[in-house]
Every structure is written in C-alpha cells, then in structure tokens.
Amino acid sequence: MVSVGTVVWLASELMFFAALFAMYFTLRAASPEMWATETAKLNVPFALINTIILVSSSFSCQLGVFRAEDLKPRRTGGLFNLKEWGMVEWFVLTVILGSIFVSVQAYEYTELVAHGIAMNSNAYGSVFYMTTGFHGLHVAGGLIAFMLIIGRALIARKFGHFEATGAIVVSYYWHFVDVVWIALFAIIYFLK
C-alpha cells in the first residue's frame, strides 16, 4: 500500500515538473534571443560533472535497496569491503553524493549571479532558478528522507520488511528526482 501511495504521489510531482517545463518552453519561445545569450553563460562541463555525481547516487541508492531487500541493514565486513556493505552504508554514500550535488548547484548559482544571471534579472534567470531550484529542494527532501531511513535502521531492534519497505519507497523518490534532473539538464544545458 505504501508503494502504491508513493507512486501516486510521484505522479502528482511529475505534473508539477511538467508545469515547470511548460513555463520554460513558453518563455523560451517568446524570447529566443535572450535564451541564446544567457545559455552561453552556462558552464556545461561543470554541470555535466555534477549530473554524473547525482546519477551515480542512484546506483548507490539501488545497491542499498538490494541490501534492504536482503534484510541486511549494516555491513558485516570491513569499511572498505564494499561487497559486505549493508543498506546504511550505501544510503550514507547516497546522502554524501546528493549533498555534493546540492552544494555544487549552490556554487553554480553564485557563479551565474556573478555573470549577471539572477532570479530577477530577466525571464531566463527566473525560469532557470525556478526549475533547478525546485529540483534542488526535492533533492534536499530526499536527503532528509534517507537520513530518516538510516536512523530508523540504526535504532530498529530487528530490521524487517517494514524498514525495507521504507527504504524501497525512498528509492522510488530518489530515482524520480534523478530522472527529472536528467531531463532538466538536457533541456537547460544542451537544447539550443
């Protein structure tokens, strides 16, 4: 039941991001010259590296889900023996990668403001910060959810299907956020 509820909620989130995409394309169609000028200021290689970091967090998340499904919350071997990592270790790595993504995105914002792209500078700035900013808020929400799942796993006397289900539905959300970013990245940074 929790999985179905999460999927229905993610469908509503999809509609929210669809509205943001519609706003982006509408304003872009109204001011193509502005888009050409402003997108030239974007640091595509920098954003690509940040995208790779976020996408790699989906892999660590899924490895944590596999461990949760095996009811293996914590590692059974040494810290550097990745084969013996449990869900907690993989989710901690996911939180680290997601935190790096958000931090790099914040740094990118400061660089863009220094180059004259601010939220209130023009339509491009407004759309750029709204789409990527709302995505960043969703990533931050996912990081909080991961920390709650990690905390629950650490205090649970017996890690069972209840805890595993929580880990699985958080992974649904995380994969959704990653897919949305891939679409945003392709549209904002590559679509000319």
From TrEMBL:
Keyword set includes Membrane: yes
Gene Ontology biological process terms from the UniProt entry: aerobic electron transport chain
Keyword terms: Cell membrane, Membrane, Translocase, Transmembrane, Transmembrane helix
Pfam families: COX3 (PF00510)
EC number: 7.1.1.9
Bilayer-crossing regions: 7-27, 47-66, 87-107, 127-151, 172-191
Highest taxon in the source lineage: Bacteria
Domain Heme-copper oxidase subunit III family profile as annotated: residue spans: 1-192
The protein's name: cytochrome-c oxidase
InterPro entries in alphabetical order: Cyt_c/ubiquinol_Oxase_su3, Cyt_c_oxidase-like_su3, Cyt_c_oxidase_su3-like_sf, Cyt_c_oxidase_su3_a-hlx
Main enzyme class: translocase
GO MF term list: cytochrome-c oxidase activity
Keyword Membrane included in the entry's annotation: yes
Family named by the database record: Belongs to the cytochrome c oxidase subunit 3 family.
Cellular compartment(s): Cell membrane
Catalytic activity from the UniProt record: 4 Fe(II)-[cytochrome c] + O2 + 8 H(+)(in) = 4 Fe(III)-[cytochrome c] + 2 H2O + 4 H(+)(out)
Gene3D superfamilies: Cytochrome c oxidase, subunit III, four-helix bundle (1.20.120.80)
Signal peptide: none
Membrane topology annotation: Multi-pass membrane protein
CC per GO annotation: plasma membrane
Record PROSITE patterns: COX3
